[in-house]
C-alpha cells in the first residue's frame, strides 16, 4: 500500500490521480506560502482546475492542504501542478492603520477581512501602540508586527498554515525531538558570521518634546566590543516604547554570531517545516555544534515510498 495519499477536489468531484514520482513540499519560516508540486497523468477523465482544493497525506499523517494555482501540460500527457497553502493569500496588498493591537489580534483581523480559516493563534501579549502600513503585502505587515514583538520582548512567534488553518505559535512550542547528525545527513555546508544581524552595542534615541531633550538608551557588551570592535544598532523610538527594555532585548537578540547550516538528503520527517527547531549534533572542523537550530527552509521530496529533505538551518540570531 502506498504511503502517499493525494486527493484533488473539483466541486462535488474528488479525484485520486495517478501520480508520477517526485512529490515536493516546501515551507519557509517567514514570508512565503507552503508549496506542493507534483505530476499526474492526464487520463482524459480527471478534470483539475485552478482553485481546486488539494489534500496531501503521508503515512496517514496530515501534511498539506491548499489550492491549485498553476498547471502545465506537455506532449507526454503529464500535467505538472503547483499548489499553495492559505499563506498565498497574504501576498495581497492593502493599507492598514491600527492602534493598541497585539500581533495576534492583527493576524486575526486580516484573516477575518480576507476570509482565511484560522486554527490556534497564540497570544503575543505585546501591545503595538500605533502602526500605519501603507501599500504593503499582508505578509510584510504581519512580519512587521511579529518583528516589533520580538524586538521588545525577545519572544519569537511563527505564522504558518497547519493543514488548512492559519496558525500562530511560539518558537519554543515548535521544537521537535529529531536529531540531525553525521549519520543522518549526506552533505552539508556550515558558516558563522558577525557580518550581518550581529550587534554588540544598541543605541536608541527619543526626542522628548515636553523637555526639549533627546533621551538616549544604550546597551552594550564590552567583551564582544573588545573581540569584534563596535557593531552598533541604531533606531529612533517613540514615547510609548520602553527604551531600556527594548535596548536590553535587542542586545540579547543580536549580540551573537549568526550560524547557518545547509544539509542535503536527510531522512524525512513530516513534522519538520519552516519555523520548527531540530537538534543538530555535528563536529565541523574545530567547531562542535550540539543545540537546537531553527529551520529557515525545508524541501521534502517523496519518491518511491522514500522520503528525504533538504534543510536550511539557522542558529544564534533569530531576527525577524
Structure description:
By secondary structure, the chain is mostly beta strands. It has four domains: 4-84, Phage tail proteins - horseshoe like beta roll fold (Roll), CATH 2.30.300; 89-171, Phage tail protein beta-alpha-beta fold (3-Layer(bab) Sandwich), CATH 3.55.50; 182-194 and 257-315, no CATH class; 201-254, no CATH class. 14% of the residues lie in helices and 51% in strands. It contains four helices and 21 strands. Helix 1 packs antiparallel against helix 2 (138-153) and helix 2 packs across helix 4 (243-254). The two termini are 42 Å apart.
What is the percentage of strand-forming residues?
Answer: over 45%
Structural class label = mainly beta
Low-confidence stretches: none
**Fraction of residues in helices?**
10-25%
Number of helices: 4
Q: What is the correct CATH architecture of the largest domain?
A: 3-Layer(bab) Sandwich
Q: How many whole angstroms does the radius of gyration measure?
A: 23 Å
Global morphology: globular
Count of all domains:
4
Mean pLDDT: 92
> Which CATH class of the largest domain?
Alpha Beta
Cα distance, first to last residue?
A: 42 Å
- Encode the helix/strand succession as letters: EEEEEEEEHEEHEEEEEEHEHEEEE
Amino acid at each position: 500500500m502506498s504511503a502517499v495519499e493525494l486527493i484533488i477536489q473539483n466541486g462535488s468531484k474528488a479525484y485520486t490521480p495517478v501520480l508520477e514520482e517526485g512529490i515536493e513540499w516546501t515551507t519557509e519560516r517567514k514570508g512565503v506560502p507552503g508549496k506542493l508540486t507534483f505530476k499526474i497523468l492526464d487520463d482524459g477523465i480527471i478534470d483539475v482546475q485552478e482553485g481546486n482544493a488539494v489534500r496531501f497525506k503521508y503515512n496517514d499523517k496530515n501534511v498539506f492542504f491548499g489550492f491549485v494555482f498553476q498547471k502545465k501540460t506537455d506532449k507526454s500527457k503529464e500535467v505538472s501542478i503547483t499548489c499553495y497553502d492559505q499563506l498565498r493569500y497574504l501576498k495581497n496588498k492593502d493599507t492598514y492603520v491600527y492602534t493598541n493591537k497585539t500581533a495576534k489580534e492583527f493576524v486575526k483581523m486580516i484573516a477575518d477581512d480576507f476570509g482565511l480559516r484560522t486554527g490556534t493563534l497564540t497570544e503575543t501579549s505585546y501591545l503595538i501602540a500605533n502602526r500605519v502600513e501603507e501599500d504593503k503585502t499582508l505578509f510584510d505587515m504581519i512580519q512587521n508586527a511579529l518583528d516589533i514583538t520580538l524586538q521588545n520582548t525577545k519572544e519569537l512567534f511563527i505564522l504558518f498554515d497547519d493543514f488548512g488553518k492559519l496558525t500562530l505559535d511560539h518558537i519554543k512550542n515548535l521544537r521537535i525531538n529529531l536529531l540531525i547528525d553525521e549519520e543522518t545527513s549526506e552533505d552539508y555546508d556550515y558558516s558563522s558570521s558577525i557580518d550581518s544581524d550581529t550587534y554588540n552595542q544598541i543605541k536608541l534615541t527619543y526626542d522628548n518634546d515636553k523637555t526639549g531633550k533627546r533621551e538616549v538608551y544604550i546597551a552594550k557588551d564590552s567583551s564582544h566590543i573588545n573581540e569584534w570592535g563596535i557593531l552598533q544598532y541604531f533606531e529612533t523610538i517613540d514615547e510609548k516604547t520602553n527604551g531600556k527594555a527594548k535596548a536590553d532585548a535587542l542586545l540579547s537578540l543580536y549580540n551573537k554570531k549568526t550560524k547557518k547550516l545547509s544539509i542535503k538528503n536527510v531522512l524525512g520527517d513530516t513534522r519538520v517545516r519552516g519555523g520548527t527547531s531540530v537538534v543538530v549534533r555535528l563536529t565541523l572542523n574545530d567547531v562542535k555544534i550540539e543545540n537546537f537550530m531553527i529551520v529557515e527552509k525545508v524541501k521534502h521530496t517523496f519518491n518511491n515510498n522514500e522520503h528525504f529533505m533538504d534543510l536550511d538551518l539557522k542558529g544564534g540570531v533569530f531576527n525577524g
